[in-house]
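Tutorial sheet, problem 5. The two components below are modelled jointly, 962 residues in total.
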Amino acid sequence: MSTLLPQLTAKDFASDQEIRWCPRCGDYSILAQMKKVLPELGIPREQFCFVSGIGCSSRFPYYMNTYGFHSIHGRAPAVASGVKLANPDLQVWVITGDGDALSIGGNHLMHAIRRNLDINIVLFNNQIYGLTKGQYSPTSPLGSKTKSTPYGSVDNPLNPLSVAIGCEATFVARAVDVDTRHLAATLRRAANHKGTSFVEVYQDCNVFNSGAFYYASKKGEKEENIIYLEHGKPLIFGKQRDKGVRLNAHGRPEVVDLSGISEDDLLFHDEEAEDPSLAFLLAQMRHPEFPEPLGVLRNVSRTVYDQAVRDQVSHAKETLGEGDLEKLFNSGDTWVVEE
Amino acid sequence: MSVADPPASPEGRSKEALDTVVIRFCGDSGDGMQLAGTQFTNVSAVFGNDVSTLPDFPAEIRAPIGTVAGVSGFQICFSSKDIFTPGDEVDTLVAMNPAALKSNVADLKRGGTLIVNEDAFEASNLKKAGYDHNPLDGDEALAAYRVHKVPMTRLTRDSVEGLGLSQSEADRSKNFFALGLVYWLYDRDSKPTEDWVQTKFAKKPEIAEANIRALKGGSNFGFSTEAFTVHYEVPPAKLAPGKYRKITGNEAVAMGLATAARLSNADVVFSGYPITPASDILHELSKFKHFGVTTFQAEDEIAAMSATCGAAFGGAMAVTASSGPGICLKGEAMGLGMITELPMVIIDVQRGGPSTGLPTKTEQSDLLLAMFGRNGESPLPVIAPQTPGDCFWAIQEAMRVAVEFMTPVLLLSDGYIANGAEPWMVPKASDIEPIKVDFLTGPNVGEEFHPYLRDERLVRPWAAPGTPGLEHRVGGLEKKDGTGNVEYSPENHQHMSDIRARKIANVAEFIPEQEIDGPESGDLLVLSWGGTFGSCRTAVRQAQEDGKSVTHAHLRYLNPFPRNLETIIRNFKKVLIPELNLGQLSLMIRSKYLVDAVSYNKIQGKPFKVVEVLNKINDVLKS
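Model answer (structure tokens):
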């Protein structure tokens, strides 16, 4: 089927609109990788729909030459649910940010994920409100000094991956804006997952929160701070690949030097584990205490909401026949008034 | 002899013919009064009476047993004439406990029949109802009524004896005993109810048997007791010839949507969140999947409205339903639907407000919310059905306007017509005009697609995702006319605001002219809207019969108003606007037409009584 489609390129997915993000914003990189990945999926351009809420990241649909809906603050997952229910053949992407998805829109995010609608949610996490010029967000670290927290924030932040896993997401991954090859691979896998895929992207807001993720993005530094997850492989990291993560006697992760330890004693990644405990444990590994995992934390299969909805409709049509209005109008007790 | 056995002899009873009767069943909210009322309605409708009902129940599922707060009532008016309301005063009141008596007896007509379950009038129930003595013991206050003290609890237990039921199970059939007694009193055929019981309790044959025995027990009690010396008959009404069924407003909305889905070339996607009194629409629709209806129970009202915008963008006829508190939450997303110019219908089944207000009671106080409850300049068409059966047509009309004009449309139903029932002439599917959906299939400006290129009515095209070559973006930001690209310039915002307002104003050219009931000019125009149709129409007809120069105009289109409304208004010396709010239509009419309209407002969670409107008509004519 895909061979019959005209070969699309990244250019085909670029809209004619001038991009209005700040120069060097991490969003540019994510946009570029998206445009690169979509042509590879073998899906016609008119079958893509991008839905967003409000925030810098939510301008994304305007820059994609696909169907797009720039909706209102926090509601993108709900809008996307409507799009998908009305038009289930579309590949629907939700583009959102930390404030949009986890603050004002937390409820919708939770419910889209637990329903396991076949949509892809990409959360650009820059730990700050950029569009409103620099207030702390629900992912800003404790103590963040921002316009609205001159004495430091006292709110405990949310961990987006923990939220998604807590909602029993069937696909959970993390990538970094400038780590382009890994980002593209992650987006590709998200696109191909049946059910809700949730991808957190560490995105640098170089104006209001510059360098928040340098530990995970800067060459020479990141190698000590991140672990690329691979299904079935042990957790190994470090410039020299000389460190690993294993579970201690209490079942908690600990970083170990590989010099005196066999690889077999390390924690092995299993993204397909039905039980979300491992994924949650990985999500809880935070810098600087632990290297932070990048890649797919969880990838399992569960009934897809929109498919189940469609199945119910076809089942109703099979068992009851196409709706018969005469029968419907005449259902219940009727009586005739004679001339 | 058990009371469920047939009585020995039918002698000594006389039958009186009546043309209109109002009955009210009331009791504890666990007493099954809604069920008794619904059954009486069905039986009377099938018999051929015109019927109109008013269910009245507490917001609590089970308020404390025996208290006034927990009283649930169901009023039905049935007639051999054409009627428009459930009646002002009650002819026969069935009260299952002291609290029900206390809170309902004031509506019983002097000389009316009062049937009470005297077994329930014991000390603790009397105390809970706030009586310091038993009103059945020769109370002066009840002297004006024909009181029948019936030991219903005991007689029901006798009727079901031998079925092996526990006492509490047996007591649950009391409502059927009461129903059977009233069936006898009004010469109703209990067969449809017996059939219903058999089907409903097919899996619990002993409960079915108990209910049927209680029903017969009640009927036999009426028959064999000396106390009921007269029983009554209400002959069938002379409705227009045709086939009828009983319908509530919420059922009619659901059927209207199934019809729209089946007859048009687009499916219906309904997104809702449970809320009284709108939830029944979701319940009914969820059974209609084979008609092309998808239902989505969203996580909240905002999600339901957002999903409705998404579904409209996706190419479905998108609908949501709620009540006032939910409509408030939906406001921002309704604005999104408005600025993106996508077709959808928002149903507001109005209830008493503000805030949580009176969830189970009726009111017309969301008109201004529907008109202005969004930020920015955001006019939307507003349509109001006038009777339960009219909801079937009004929802289709709302959807037609939405699709024709690419705009969200508000349908203002209310608790009274949503839950109330009336006979409804069954339409023929082939007589119903399908809603024609025109999806654009290719570029509209050379090789390009301009999503906001407008036709002569200022309406933009609808392009469903999946159509090659029409990829486009919509959103909540102000957009340039034509291309739809984001555009903040002052001139463009003025232009777009004007265009959007003019487009909605143009709907007036599409909708029919306002009809009137009565002469084209005269002393008084009664101008009403929505669910008050029955009371206002009846009151105006009575005033006309009394020789008064009064005409009735009942508005179905609240925004824009019908194009001939101003002419109608100017032909009358005075205008009276009765509303179940503090004067919302009145505000709109006064400001739009600069006419000194008189408001008549009631805000008690109850519909108008005919006599209330009639008295007001006479007052205004005198002044």
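Marking note: Chain A has ten helices and twelve strands. Full credit if you identified this.
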